[in-house]
Design goal:
This protein is mainly alpha-helical and about 325 residues long. It is built from 17 helices and two strands. It has one domain: Farnesyl Diphosphate Synthase (Orthogonal Bundle).
C-alpha cells in the first residue's frame, strides 16, 4: 500500500517523547488551567471540571512548551501560563464546535452540550476565552497579545466559513484547506510561535516555528478527517463516521466526489442532503472510498505538509528537542489516538 500507509500504521512514540521532555511543566499547565477555571458559579465549575476530566492530548500546550525549550527559554513560568492560554482557546473552540455540529461524543465521552445544553456550552466556552484573555493581559507582552487575539479571530472566521459551506458536497479542496487552516492550523502556528517569542529569538526563528506549526496543524487535521473513515473506537478517540453522521464534508469526501461517476455522485448528494444519515449510508460511502483508494490519496496530501514542517526546522541547531519536534510531524499522520 506504499510507504505513506506504512507510516500511518507505524507505532510512533514521538508524542510521548515530547510530553516527557516537558512533563514537569505540563503538570503545572494542568494546575494553572484548573485554578483559572475555578468559579463561584456552581454550573460553571461542574462543566469546566467535566471538560478537564475528559482529558485530551494537550498537544497545543506541548508545542508551546517544546518550542520555548527548543529556543532556550529558561527565564521563568511564562511558558506555563501561555501554554495554558493556548489550551483554553482550544477548549473554547471545542465547546462551540460541538454546539454548531450538534455533537454528542468527544474523546469517547458525552459532550457538554449533550449533558447540559447548547446555551450553557456556549457561555462556558466564552468563559474559557475570557479567562484566557485575562492571562494574556497579565503576561504583558504586546506581541503575544496581538498574536493570540488575532488567532481567536481567525478561528471564529474559520467556523463561519465552514458553516457557510456546510453540506456542500462539491466543495473545492482549496475551500477545505482554508477552513482547516483557520480552524486548526492557526492555533498550532500560534502555539509554536509563542514559544519562540518567549525566548526572544530572532525574526527568522519565529517565522520558522510559525511555519512549522501551521504545516503540522494541516497534517494533523487531514489525518483526523481521514481517520474518521479509516478507524474504530478502540484505536481512536472517536467513533468511525462521526464527521459523516454530522454531515461534515472533509477531504476524503471531497476527493471521493472528484473520482466517482455521475450515478454515484447523485447517490452521495442525496445522502448528504438528508437530515439524518444511517449506518447503511456510511457503509456505502466507505465502500466507494475503498474502491477509489481515497484514504491513500489523503495521506499522500498530508505527507506534503509533513515535508514543509520538517524543512522549516533546519534553521535550528541539532538538539534532542529539535529531533522530537521534527519526528512529531510523522506522528501527526501516523497516530492512532
Amino acid at each position: 500500500m506504499g510507504s505513506v500507509i506504512k507510516l500511518q500504521n507505524k507505532i510512533n512514540n514521538t508524542y510521548f517523547e515530547l510530553k516527557n521532555s516537558v512533563d514537569e511543566k505540563l503538570v503545572l499547565v494542568e494546575e494553572k488551567i484548573k485554578s483559572k477555571l475555578s468559579s463561584d458559579v456552581d454550573l460553571a465549575n461542574k462543566m469546566t471540571n467535566y471538560h478537564i476530566d475528559t482529558g485530551g492530548k494537550r498537544l497545543r500546550a506541548l508545542l508551546t512548551l517544546g518550542a520555548a525549550k527548543l529556543c532556550g527559554y529558561t527565564k521563568g513560568s511564562r511558558d506555563i501560563n501561555l501554554a495554558a492560554c493556548v489550551e483554553l482557546i482550544h477548549g473554547a473552540t471545542l465547546m462551540h464546535d460541538d454546539v454548531i455540529d450538534n455533537g454528542e461524543v468527544r474523546r469517547g465521552k458525552k459532550t457538554l452540550n449533550k449533558i447540559w445544553n447548547n446555551h450553557s456550552s456556549i457561555l462556558v466556552g466564552d468563559y474559557l476565552l475570557s479567562r484566557c484573555f485575562e492571562m494574556m493581559v497579565e503576561d504583558g507582552n504586546i506581541e503575544i497579545l496581538k498574536l493570540l487575539s488575532a488567532t481567536s479571530s481567525t478561528i471564529a472566521q474559520g467556523e463561519i466559513l465552514q458553516l457557510q459551506h456546510k453540506g456542500e458536497i462539491d466543495m473545492l479542496e482549496e475551500t477545505y484547506l482554508k477552513i482547516i487552516s483557520a480552524k486548526t492550523a492557526e492555533l498550532f502556528s500560534a502555539a509554536t510561535k509563542v514559544g519562540a517569542i518567549l525566548a526572544e529569538v530572532g525574526t527568522k526563528e519565529k517565522e520558522a516555528l510559525e511555519f512549522y506549526g501551521r504545516n503540522l496543524g494541516l497534517t494533523f487535521q487531514i489525518a483526523d478527517d481521514t481517520l474518521d473513515y479509516n478507524s474504530d473506537l478502540k484505536m481512536f478517540g472517536k467513533e468511525i463516521g462521526q464527521d459523516f453522521y454530522e454531515g461534515k464534508v472533509t477531504l476524503p469526501i471531497i476527493l471521493l466526489f472528484q473520482k466517482i461517476n455521475e450515478t454515484e455522485k447523485e447517490l452521495i448528494n442525496n445522502i448528504f442532503f438528508k437530515t439524518k444519515r444511517e449506518k447503511n449510508d456510511l457503509e456505502y460511502v466507505l465502500k466507494l472510498i475503498k474502491k477509489y483508494s481515497v484514504i491513500n490519496e489523503c495521506y499522500k496530501k498530508a505527507q506534503h505538509y509533513i515535508e514543509l514542517a520538517s524543512s522549516s526546522l533546519s534553521i535550528f541547531k541539532n538538539s534532542e528537542q529539535k529531533e522530537i519536534l521534527n519526528n512529531l510531524t510523522s506522528f501527526s499522520l501516523a497516530r492512532n489516538f
